Hints:
The chain has 416 residues and is α+β, with helices and mostly antiparallel strands. The protein contains twelve helices and 20 strands. Helix 5 (177-183) packs across helix 6 (187-199) and helix 7 crosses helix 8.
Amino acid sequence: MLIDFTVENFRSFADTQTFSMIASKDASHETHVVEKGAFRFLKTAAVYGANASGKSNLIKAFWFMKRFVEESATKMNLDDPIADVEPFRLSRQWRTKPSTFAIRLLINGTEYQYGFSATRERVHKEWLHVKREGGRVVPALSREYDAGKDKTEWHTRGELKEQAKAAIKATRDNGLFLSQAAQVNVEFVKELFLWFRRCLWHYDLSNLDVRLLLGQTATLALYNQSLGAQIERLTRDADLGISRLALTTERVPLEDDRVVFPRLKTAHVDQGSGEPIEFSLLEEESNGTRRFFAIVGPIVVALDRGDLLVLDELDCSIHPLLTRKLIELFQSNEANPNGAQLIFATHDSTLMNASLLRRDQIWLCEKNSKEATDLFSLCDIERTPRKREALENNYLAGRYGGVPRFGPALEDYEVR
């Protein structure tokens, strides 16, 4: 489970900002909290803010860390630039500094503290601290580039010391040790690497490859009977007019080969005869229906396995009441027995309601006087909102921050 995530000098982020999924002492909505070991984790968290405030950049930071961990040893070559490392550009002091990403996780009772800093040219630092259940924190890995000597210093300790030698030798300047160690089967980092690969889901619903994700959800519904039944039930009960799914497979030409691809059909009911009428999901269903079906697959898998799902623009083309129900799935002990977590960025202020979210579950992004993103929760502001406060109204009134500050062309305009 995610403990916290830290980003520095990435896109709109300059100074270090940390996003935490640790619950405060707030006693409300105890079902929104899951206890594991010494930690009390939040199951969901919402991120609000004005346009260009940094919400999407926080989600992109998760995506960049996941992709770089997964691919730096397998899809990058010697001297390739590290794509998508974008420092804060509105201040000269930040433009030449590395971007930094760090994460704390609890996986099967072990706490991992892992992070790295990088420019487009190289990784400058990488570190891994590990705390086994009941033990102490061990600084297992430290990697640091010395520009004066043009040399990288490596230090390993504990169980990793003997296992790491081959991986260190094979790690390129533009790649991560964690990625390379996974490729040469270093047992010590296996669990951490596989969390990034299998347990962290990331989607931008405003810029979604709907066809690809529809195919993934349909394949899941076809070949996993249990999860397929959940997908069909959620789709049927979402009031989309769909009585059942009618998914089949067909051979589809792909270059010189032929592959199996799901044929995406939904069944509606003829209002006269009661007979099923099939619709093409890709061509005849609404944009909102397609997006709901596309994302319901990852939701079902995350709930089943206890994964982390990170979404940008959760409210895109989906009704606010349906969005609320998806959030409630993660906050339900019955629907979410394995402690899956959902982090989502949204503009839907109707979700900012004390009946749905605790104060520590609501985060705000706001540009400071230097045009860099500050990140904070409602529990962090000087006057913490009361439990029964009208959160949406006060947020839109600007009492918490994270709302647009309009100029005279929009604030003091005259209608002519």
